[in-house]
From TrEMBL:
Keywords: ATP-binding, Nucleotide-binding, Transport. The keyword Transport applies. This is ABC transporter ATP-binding protein. InterPro entries: AAA+_ATPase, ABC_transporter-like_ATP-bd, ABC_transporter-like_CS, ABC_transporter_ATP-binding, P-loop_NTPase. Residues 14-243 form the ABC transporter domain. SMART domains: AAA. The lineage of its organism: Bacteria, Pseudomonadati, Pseudomonadota, Alphaproteobacteria, Sphingomonadales.
């Protein structure tokens, strides 16, 4: 892929092309992933356990060596121009690993230096205050609670004022306060034009924060959509009616509704969009009553993230092998 010159406004924050990773064990964690994230965007990578989210982030940040393809951070090749790329990147990893014997202030100040930034005590103080770590600045990392350690990881990732921030499952296992602070921080960073790529299992998080969502499954980026569009898909519900008498086929008069028969004709299944102005449920029930189709019971089910994944995986498989 041809890259615009580094650090011009046209340069995407992140440009990934054919990025692949096969671990030594033979596990193919990433199959030639392509992805471009614009500057200032908040992009959520959504996917089930083991989908390849962490591998993708780690391959961009130089923690995992890709087996193929390339990644550019603000125009800098993350392999051939690693140092320039890495100093523009902040990473809050999923696992906490930081020097247990160092103090909070020392470890965060050191991180800034590590990425070539000149000392700025006022900046570090503000950062620690924003993350409610200032009172703990002289505490050793090992003396901190899990939540505080996570705050330290965030402070470290932001210490060198990165332009592209990766948050790997930022809210997994954190308390309500930290979750709220985290989102406030993300909003603040966005206002300053920082690009954010985060991974999550929670669709609500993506919905609230992200401009676009990428769904990753089995190492393939199977869909990249504006969050609004994906939420529309998520807004589907199914109504299942247990019929009094089985039907052999869907009557012609009900052709306007998106219906399917299940359970040997004993169940009529209607899939509808909960976000549409009219769901079509009352009119369907009226039409059934006109046709004398009775039902014994009914239930509704909201499509879950799991269903969406399954649907998307099937759709993408069908596109490839029609
Ligand atoms: N160091 C490793 N060696 C071998 N296989 C690995 C290694 N790290 C990850 N994997 C495998 O690669 C695949 C992708 O893992 P990855 O951690 O990237 O997924 P993930 O989407 O981040 O999952 P989670 O949501 O559980 O964090 C999985 O099958 C995992 O077992």
């Amino acid at each position: 892929m041809t890259q615009p010159a580094p650090d011009t406004p046209a340069t995407p924050a992140l440009a990934i092309s054919g990025l692949a990773k096969t671990y030594a064990s033979g596990v193919v964690a990433l199959h030639a992933v392509d992805l471009t994230v614009a500057r200032g965007e908040i992009f959520a990578l959504l996917g089930p356990n083991g989908a390849g989210k962490t591998t993708l982030i780690n391959a961009v940040c130089g923690i995992v060596t890709p087996s193929g393809g390339s990644a550019h951070a603000l125009g800098h090749d993350t392999r051939t121009d690693y140092r320039s790329a890495r100093r523009l990147i902040g990473l809050v990893p999923q696992e906490l690993h930081t020097d247990a014997f160092e103090t909070v202030l020392a470890t965060v100040s050191f991180s800034r230096k590590l990425f070539g930034r000149s000392r700025d005590d006022a900046f570090i103080e503000k950062l620690l205050r924003d993350l409610t770590l200032w009172d703990k600045r002289d505490a050793k990392i090992m003396e901190l609670s899990g939540g505080m350690k996570r705050r330290v990881m965030i402070a470290k990732a932001l210490s060198h004022e990165p332009e592209l921030l990766f948050l790997d499952e930022p809210t997994a296992g954190v308390d309500v306060d930290l979750r709220r602070d985290m989102w406030e921080m993300v909003r603040g960073l966005r206002e300053r034009g920082v690009t954010i790529v985060l991974t999550t299992h929670y669709i609500e998080e993506a919905e609230e924060m992200a401009d676009r969502v990428g769904v990753i499954a089995k190492g393939r980026l199977i869909i990249v959509e504006e969050t609004r569009t994906l939420m529309k898909k998520l807004g589907r519900k199914t109504l299942t009616l247990n019929l009094a008498q089985p039907l052999g086929a869907i009557p012609e008069a009900l052709a306007n509704w998106n219906l399917a028969l299940a359970g040997d004709g004993h169940e009529l299944v209607y899939e509808f969009d909960t976000q549409a102005e009219a769901t079509g449920v009352p009119s369907l029930l009226r039409a059934m009553s006109d046709l004398d189709i009775g039902f014994k019971d009914l239930n509704t089910k909201q499509s879950s993230l799991e269903d969406i994944f399954v649907d998307l995986v099937h759709e993408s498989a069908a596109e490839k092998h029609p």
